[in-house]
Amino acid sequence: MYDMKALYEAASVEEAIALRLAHPEAQIIAGGSDVLVQMREGRRAGAELISIYSIDALRGVTLEEDGTLRVGSLTSFSHITRDPLIQKYCPTLGYAVDQVGSPQIRNIGTIGGNTCNGVTSADSASTLFAFEAIIELTGKNGVRRVPIHEFYIKAGTVDIRAGEGEIQTGILIPRESYERTFGHYIKYGMRNAMEIATLGCSVNVRLSEDRQTIERCRIAYGVAGPVPMRCPTAEALAAGQKPTEALFEAFSKAVLKDINPRDSWRASKAFRRHIAVEMARRCLAESVKRAGGETA
Fold this sequence. Notes:
Layout: E1 4-9, H1 13-22, E2 27-29, H2 35-40, E3 47-51, E4 61-63, E5 69-72, H3 77-82, H4 84-89, H5 91-97, H6 103-108, H7 111-116, H8 125-130, E6 134-139, E7 142-147, H9 148-151, E8 152-154, E9 157-158, E10 167-173, H10 175-178, E11 182-188, E12 199-207, E13 214-222, E14 229-230, H11 232-238, H12 245-254, H13 269-290
Parallel strand pairs: 1-3, 2-3
Antiparallel strand pairs: 4-5, 5-10, 6-7, 6-10, 8-9, 11-12, 12-13, 13-14
């Protein structure tokens, strides 16, 4: 049994916005793989819920006229992994969300729910940060687009303004962020499945036309701080450099200047910093390899 005050079901984005305005304290529920578990644990006892799961317009992956890759917020993890556009333009995201939970969870869980939870351990988060994703929010004042690094406000909190009735309607990856880029994601956990990340690391690179130089590099972590984060020091160090073992080593150590993991029962701060270095090195080396580069 679930202890809830009320459940409202929205059939359209407009109806969901109206329900949010009428019930600003209500919790949005999509697949329910997180919210329903929290309710069973008693953490949301007596909650009002607004279900948006029936809004099919928020499902699917499309390519906009300007080349922006658009992922509807209700698109399931399993759909993202198998989608031809994701496989062609951003397979790193498909691989990252395929690390979530179990097949059952990946079939019901949504990319919007994963990001709106605001947790730093979300498997999609570090890859979306590395690909400079943009969050689309729709409310009574129309559509608002927010860079993902501004969307995450603090641990467990994201910028969806109940007073404006906003819901997340899409996640956008600009063409500039994925074009000619190749990446890799590593999730570290104590088990290979049904595990929350102890640390997640995502890297992508764009090589020069002759594949001899790293033209651009992005790296982001989950669980390396209270919210997912990029590592600008390491990114700047790699830009314009030849992919050598020496560079990989320097790059991996440079991440320590930006990350700030915490001690928890899953792992100590010292251990997270230790594996962050190795994950950065492996992710960069693999990204360069996938981009067709060779290590000098």
